[in-house]
Every structure is written in structure tokens, then in C-alpha cells.
Amino acid sequence: MINAIIEYCAGHRALVVILVSSLVLMGIWSMKNVPLDAIPDLSDPQVIIYTEWPGRSPDLVEAQITYPIVSSMLAAPHVSVVRGTSDYGFSYVYVIFDEGTDIYWGRSRVLEYMSKITGKLPEGVTPALGPDATGVGWAFEYALVDKTGNNNLAQLRSFNDWYMRYWLESVPGVAEVATVGGFVKQYQVNVDPNKLLAYNLPLSKVMDVIRNSNNEVGGRVVEFTGKEYLVRGRGYVRSLEDIEGLAVGTDERGTPILVKHLGSVELGPDMRRGVVELNGEGEVTGGIVVVRFGQNVMDVIQRVKTTLEKTKPSLPEGVEVVVTYDRSDLIARSIETLKDTLIEELIIVSIVILIFLWHIPSAIIPIITIPIAVLLAFIPMYGTGLTSNIMSLGGIAIAIGAMVDAAIVVVEQTHKKLEHWEAEGRPGSSTRVVIDAVKEVGGPSFFSLLVIAVSFMPIFALEAQ
User: Fold this and answer.
1) pTM of the predicted structure, to 2 decimals
2) What are the pLDDT digits (tens) for 59-99?
3) How far apart (Å, rounded) are the C-alpha atoms in residues 162 and 145?
4) Residue whose C-alpha is closest to residue 341's, from 412, 390, 385, 296
5) Helices 390-423 and 360-384 meet at what angle, rounded to 10?
6) 360-384 and 328-357 helices cross at what angle (nearest 10)?
7) Is 152 helix (H, G, I), strand (E, B) or coil?
8) Distance (Å, whole) CA 385 – CA 101
């Protein structure tokens, strides 16, 4: 079979050139479109269910939330493992599916089975699914730095939560932007128990008044002179004075009892903290950009950087964006390593052939065939959805050694046969000499490479990580 292929290729050179050129173009296209990442994604298809129940102990969270969710997920199709973790006020349930399960199919099954236990969970508890990402989705992290000190941690956190996060989440390929650092804006009401007793007010009454007063309500439509006016009550808390002026009841003379009569209202202690520094650069908060499942990490990071550049004019005065983690650097170094290895291999092979054969055309052959073989390797990589990462590129770099070995054997064999042919007075055609020379080593070279490939076959029988 190998000899027949060699004969056919030698007799149809134009067809071989066209076929190889077409494959090279496909390889170039596949190389440019194959997803880029630093490390391979070895995580199982999983869906995370996150539930918050503030103020409850882990035992209570385990019994009321984690256990019902875990027990219901066990019956979902193609589920291999369900793990639950309970913490103070939090519950995490990890639903791991069989290898090869589509992540979005799994998320829809989780939602389907979650609908069956909605009534069994405590009132006001609403489980939420984690982002459609994998364990290696954390690809980029940024920080908002205020070197001037004009913005405290609460202001930076508010800007990050209400502006920066949504700008980045709108970037194609971003699954979630998780806020890190800073402090959420809060007001604290410090009630004096003696004053509550003096006014005969329960603490629950004060809590209900404050909670219900932070609201906006609609009224009826009033018509004047042919125009309709919508009446509404705007009651959102915007300052300390809004809370201090809330009436929680009346005394025996009918005088309103205000919140400020019962104690003090102030900003949360976290909002009054001193400067928190990032490498001595002032107050900071930031976020983690999580890349969506199946996306090209390199492209997503570049789009995130472009968005950050566009948003610079919208940042508060004195605030800058500092990149604290960027996986694209590692990805670029991985690609650069393959380039350097490929160039080094080509140079070494060329030098070896020139030293031992002293024939420039013979050195050109591996210089052409090795890059072509590398390009062709990206076609199955793209077809199977493999990413171009440290492992896959490292495999290509290692495989270059085997390809070089076969190329050198064929070139040396052909060169020696041509030397004998010239010494004998050049009987017959030089083309026939080349074909016969390649036939002699073509089969053994093919089967030697096949043995190497077969030795890796057991790896494909392994499961999971």
C-alpha cells in the first residue's frame, strides 16, 4: 500500500501539489480559528447551584437547603456525582454530569428538577445557577485604583457594581464579572435599648419601619385640564437624614417618634476605613472576569481590554484601571515557545543535513515538510474542539522530533542512491532512482511512526482527568 501511494504521488505531481496546498490553506485557517488557552480544560461538565440564607448556621442550611437540592439532583439524567457544601448562610451544590454531556443541556435539566422542590425550601430562599463556565474560566482580573484618595472603598465598589461590571459583562464571551474587594454601601442604625423601653417600642417595629420605608409606591392617575398626571411616592433612602426622619410611632401626646430619637444613624464602619493599597497605589476594588464555556479565551481577553480602554473617559476622577491577572501573557508565551522550538528544529536539521550530506536541496526538504505537518495538525485539533494550549502545543513540539527523523532517513536514502546512480554513469531516469529509494525506506518509516502512534492509543481509553 505504501509503495502504491508513492508511485501514484510520483506520477501525479500536480494533483499532489494542489492537494497539499489545499490542506495547507485549511491548516492556516484552522490555526487562526482554533481556540487559544494557556492550559487544557480538564474539568467535568458541572453546574453549580448557589443559595444564600443569611444568618443561618451550617447545620440549618444543610438540613433545609443543601439536602433537598442534593437529593433531587440525584435523579437527574446523566448525573455522575452530586456534592453539597454548607456554610454560614450559604449553600453550594455541585452537579457533575457524565463526560461529554453538553453543559447547556445539563443546565436545563438542573432547572427542570429545581422546579420540583421550590415549595420545599424556606420562604424567601431562591437558589441560583452559577455562570456557564468551567474550572479554568478565571482568565482576567482588574482593579480600580484611586491614587488621589478622592474615592473611598465604598464609592469604588459602587462604581464597580453599577457601571464597570455591566460594561464588561456585555462583552461577547464573558459569563460573569465577580466583584472583589471594596465595601458595599450601608447605613447602620444604633438603637439605645433604654430609649426603646422608655417609648414602649419593640425593636421589630423599628426594623419594619426602616425596611418598609425604603420603597417606591404608585398612586392613581389625576386628570387636570385634559392632561393626566401619574401620582407616585418616591421613598428610597438616599442619605442618613432620610433614615433619621422616619417616624416609628407617637408618644402619649401624639408627637412623632423619629429614628434619630432612638439612637444614632451613621455609615457602616467599612465605609469609614482607612486606605487599602495595591502595591502602594491607594484604595482599590476590582473584579474577576470569567470566560464562558467553549469560548476562545485569547479573543475574549482582547475584547475585555478593548472595552476597558473605551471606558477610561467614564471613570471617576483620579481612578485608574490596573490589570492584576492576564492569562493572555501565558498563552502568548506558549505560542512563542512552539515557534522557537520549530525554528530551532529547522535550523538544527538543516545544519545536520548540510554537514553530513553537503547538499543544499536535501536540506530544503525537511524545512518545507515540517511546517506543513505542523499546519496539518491544527485541522483535527479544530475539528475535535481542542484548544491550542501548553499541552497540545508541547505535543506538537515533541512530535517534530519524530517527523524530523523520518524526513532525514528519506533524504539520506535518496541522496545515497543518487550518488550510486551517478557513479554508475547515470543509467536510466533519475526520477525512477528517487522513487525506488523512497520505496525502500517509505514502508519502514511509516510503520516506525505508526508504532509510536499506537503506543499512545491506551491514553485514549482513560476516563475523566
Assistant:
1) 0.75
2) 999 999 999 999 999 989 999 999 999 999 899 999 999 88
3) 17
4) 390
5) 150
6) 150
7) coil
8) 14
